[in-house]
Amino acid sequence: MDISAIKQRFDIIGDNHALNRAIDIAVQVAGTDLSVLVTGESGVGKEVFPQIIHTNSPRKHNQYFAVNCGAIPEGTIDSELFGHEKGSFTGAYETRKGYFEVADGGTLFLDEVAELPLSTQVRLLRVLQSGEFIKVGSSKVQKTDVRVIAATNINIPRAIESGKFREDLYYRLNTVPIFVPPLRERKEDIYLLFKKFALDFADKYKMPTIRLSPDAVHLLELYRWPGNIRQLKSIAEQISIIEPKREIGGEVLKKYIPEEGPSHLPVRIDGHGNDYMTDRDIIFKVLYQLRQEIEELKTGIKNQKDSQTGPVIANHEGEVIEERAVVDYDEDAEITSEKGDQQDFSIQNMSAGFIKKALEKHNGKRKAAAAELGISERTLYRKIKELQLDI
Ligand SMILES: Nc1ncnc2c1ncn2[C@@H]1O[C@H](COP(=O)(O)OP(=O)(O)OP(=O)(O)O)[C@@H](O)[C@H]1O
Ligand SMILES: [Mg+2]
Predict the structure, then answer these.
(1) Whose CA is nearest to atom 31 of ligand 1?
(2) Which of 30, 136, 143, 204 could in theory staple to 56 by disulfide, Cβ–Cβ 3.0 to 4.6 A?
(3) Which ligand is nearest to the CA of 18?
(4) Residue 247: is it exposed, middle or buried by C-beta count within 10 angstroms (0-12/13-18/19+)?
(5) Which residue among 13, 230, 235 is best mutated to probe the pocket of ligand 1, counting the most ligand atoms within 8 A of its Cβ?
């Protein structure tokens, strides 16, 4: 299948050289069983690549599963991926098959793979190397034949440096790298994409299609698009719904494009309906991020201390639960400090407000809210639970 046929089939807009190259690699490797790692910033369009590969592979008539590793709580991720035996933990009433078992003969897409806990990374490396895995609570080695495609928007070499990702797993997953370029490096595609989204939303909302003036097109192409195609799509949708006049000039478009500032503060305060961030919010956001960094530091120090004293933390069955233990420690530490520290506690309250606001803004979509807050989806789940937010 040639590239233009793929684009048509998968609704991919754009003719950028790096994008074409990424599609070309996907087609070339589809016929093999090699592992593929799709990388690129958030919102660039990574999720279509595993589908291109699967549907062009000899496995196309078998199962395809996409698993968002960031959305599954740490405590159940091993069971989701590898299955569990009845009675292996509280609540395991039945033996359950995991994705590696049900996808036998097919393809498994591990999205947000860098979110996997280190203990799960070990299991994943094993199944990639030997096709062998063991259900949680079992001692029986099982075989499977699954082709793995993974994706991430984080810089894995940096995650390796900070001890969050295993280097051996990275090399195993990254047998074939596919890099999806950011939108700002695909300037020629920006207007094409906008036009396509404008048509789609006109159709969806049964309204005339919005059109951009030349100065608006220029503005669109100058902007850096930190949220990439997802952000462009969302702006096209907002304008399609809100603007009564269907000819959009630069001045109108400006209301929808956040001003360029320091990258960690996506701020726009102008009273035009886009004024989501007030001064107070900005301070909260900075405090929230600071708190996250302190938490990470705490975990880092604890990890270092552990590796110096060389502990082996295991449960009663002798199964090593080192990573879990570190997380528990961290959470305990947090609770103690909150009880005794008024300032800490107030930051906690601010976090709750901030999380609620981010969720409201993104219509309850946790993924988008987590991205806005600069935390992982899993951390967001944990925070919602921890703060007992009624969402
Ligand atoms: N070339 C394209 N043509 C049309 N739409 C696209 C294209 N690339 C991406 N999109 C759309 O952009 C949105 C974001 O894409 P996607 O969900 O694949 O992002 P991602 O790279 O997985 O981001 P994240 O790392 O945040 O998960 C989707 O709605 C997708 O349909
Ligand atoms: Mg994605």
Answers:
(1) 45
(2) 30
(3) 1
(4) exposed
(5) 230
Which residue's alpha carbon is at the smallest distance from atom 29 of ligand 1? Answer: 230
* Spatial CB neighbours of 298, under 8 Å, sequence gap ≥ 6: 330, 333
Residue nearest to atom 13 of ligand 1 (CA): 230
Ligand 1 atom, smallest distance to 13 CA: 3
Q: What is the pLDDT along the chain (391 residues), one digit of tens a residue?
A: 789 999 999 999 999 999 999 999 999 999 999 999 999 999 999 999 999 999 999 999 999 999 999 999 988 999 999 999 998 888 888 999 999 999 999 999 999 999 999 999 999 999 999 999 999 999 999 999 999 999 999 999 999 999 999 999 999 999 999 999 999 999 999 999 999 999 999 999 999 999 999 999 999 999 999 999 999 999 999 999 999 999 999 999 999 998 775 444 443 333 333 333 444 555 555 666 676 677 777 777 776 665 554 333 334 444 433 332 222 223 333 333 333 333 344 456 667 878 888 888 887 888 888 888 877 788 888 788 777 776 6
State how far the Cα of 103 lies from the Cα of 112, in Å rounded to an integer: 19
Q: At what angle do helices 17-30 and 48-55 cross, to 10 degrees?
A: 40
CA-proximal residue: ligand 1, atom 2 (nearest): 12
Q: At what angle do helices 322-340 and 118-130 cross, to 10 degrees?
A: 160
